[in-house]
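Many introductory courses stop at the sequence. We go one step further.
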Amino acid sequence: MQIVLVSGLSGSGKSIAIAVLEDIGFYCVDNLPLAMLPALVEQLTADGHTRIAIAIDARSGASFAQLPQIADTLREQGSDLRIVFLEAKTLSLVKRFSETRRRHPLSSDSVSLQEAIQLEREMLADIAPLGSRIDTSDLSPSALRLWIKELIGQDRSRITLLFESFGFKHGIPLDADMVFDVRCLPNPHYVPELRPLTGRDQPIRDYLEASPDAMALLADIRAFVENWLPCFIRDHRAYLTVAIGCTGGQHRSVYFAETLAAAFREREQVLVRHRELS
């Protein structure tokens, strides 16, 4: 049985994630009380289902404390269980609730929207580290759909090394495990013919590879990840997100993410994300 638990903050995209999983063949259940999960798995297994996706949120309340034990039990029984945790910055969530005119499940006459978001963030704080985190603050729905499909396609028995580029002027990704700053390097943005390009284009690669500082920093980041990756593997981590940031997230960080991914791809399970290009 392949089981995906989708959790996270209200308004962060859980409905989109569940819709994607349903489209690729998962039997989906929304807002199931965690205590009922083992019984549901048993029933659906008996009915011949092999892929289940379940959305769980703050409405599950105190039952969240049971999640680690339930997850361990299901894995011991042979299930391939993974957790996807979606989150977003408070300002992004406020904007989404304002645009959709939806009510936050924890808000009330005495609890404002921002207070409800903070309360939910605190309630879910112990859940986020259990799975793969995705910061949806600046993601389009189509980009989130693609990222969900990529995650589910990974081999759960091996760690997934994820390189993510971003722009510091848009904030640091909430899902980053390691963050590296490459803003000290020469910026192609100030070369008129290079400005419209991205770090995926050969002229940008040539520009950065001509910089000794860029090559030295690239080697240092690669060595740091290589040295510490075994520690994360021993800790039974399913995912490790390495975020590389420049000013706008278009040139230097994209080049670094692509180049590091290529360097590790021969021996590790690797994904690449470019937040600002998405």
